[in-house]
């Protein structure tokens, strides 16, 4: 499934942050978003994932195509690693969590409560959830935060495997993952010029 973004303008707090964005992401490809802090990468990923509406323009892809991994891992602290993965597998109508466990080297942790994991282990579990969604387009916001070098390599392998099976990945990251299948989009030049409050006002859901 191809993701097409056309003439997109997005807002945060009711204020346009990026405008005039056009790009396509084909199956088997990754697109890395770059740009300085605060330019609007998170806002763009949230808009594409369908969590907030654009001010104008279109995201041509059903929101059910996306698996979104935000800054926060969104884990259930009082459930074990396997219970967390089984929970998400059920939400997405999937059954098998074994591949997610082994891909992110969670075998020794499956019976640990998520709340007792280290920051990097939590991040690995958060990313492992992508594999139990069965969704083709991964939308990832700084996925490697808290990961050590070995875990970054696990993550890069997981992305590569996903691309090989026809999936795609859109991510904001400052790290070079060494993905040959990746293109880079610097969103800096698309910074919105107008800083007027957009119609519809404040997006309270962001707070
Ligand atoms: N609740 C809010 N209300 C108004 N403006 C906000 C709110 N939250 C964030 N912003 C502003 O929106 C702009 C875009 O933020 P966003 O998080 O999308 O940037 P980013 O490129 O992902 O940044 P970073 O690289 O630091 O994660 C920033 O200038 C930020 O200060």
Automatic annotation (TrEMBL):
Q: Which domain of life is it from?
A: Bacteria
Any GO BP annotation: cytochrome complex assembly
Which molecular function GO terms apply here? ATP binding; ATP hydrolysis activity; transmembrane transporter activity
What keywords appear on the UniProt entry? ATP-binding, Cytochrome c-type biogenesis, Membrane, Nucleotide-binding, Translocase, Transport
Q: Where is the ABC transporter domain?
A: 3-206
Which PANTHER family would you find in this protein's record?
ABC TRANSPORTER I FAMILY MEMBER 1 (PTHR43499)
Q: What is this protein called?
A: Heme exporter protein A
Origin species: Shimia abyssi
């Amino acid at each position: 499934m191809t993701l097409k973004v056309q003439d997109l303008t997005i807002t945060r707090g009711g204020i346009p942050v990026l405008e005039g964005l056009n790009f396509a992401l084909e199956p088997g490809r990754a697109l890395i978003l770059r740009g300085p802090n605060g330019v609007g990468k998170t806002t763009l990923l949230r808009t594409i994932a369908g969590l907030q509406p654009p001010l104008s323009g279109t995201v041509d892809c059903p929101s059910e195509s996306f698996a979104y991994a935000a800054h926060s891992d969104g884990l259930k602290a009082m459930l074990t690693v396997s219970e967390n993965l089984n929970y998400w597998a059920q939400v997405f109508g999937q059954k098998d969590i074994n591949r997610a466990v082994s891909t992110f080297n969670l075998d020794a942790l499956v019976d640990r409560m998520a709340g007792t994991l280290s920051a990097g282990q939590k991040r690995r579990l958060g990313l492992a959830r992508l594999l139990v969604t069965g969704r083709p387009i991964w939308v990832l916001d700084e996925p490697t935060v808290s990961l050590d070098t070995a875990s970054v390599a696990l993550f890069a392998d997981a992305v590569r495997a996903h691309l090989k099976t026809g999936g795609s990945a859109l991510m904001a990251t400052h790290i070079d993952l060494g993905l040959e299948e990746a293109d880079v989009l610097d969103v800096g030049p698309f910074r919105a010029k107008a800083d007027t409050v957009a119609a519809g006002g404040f997006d309270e859901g962001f707070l």
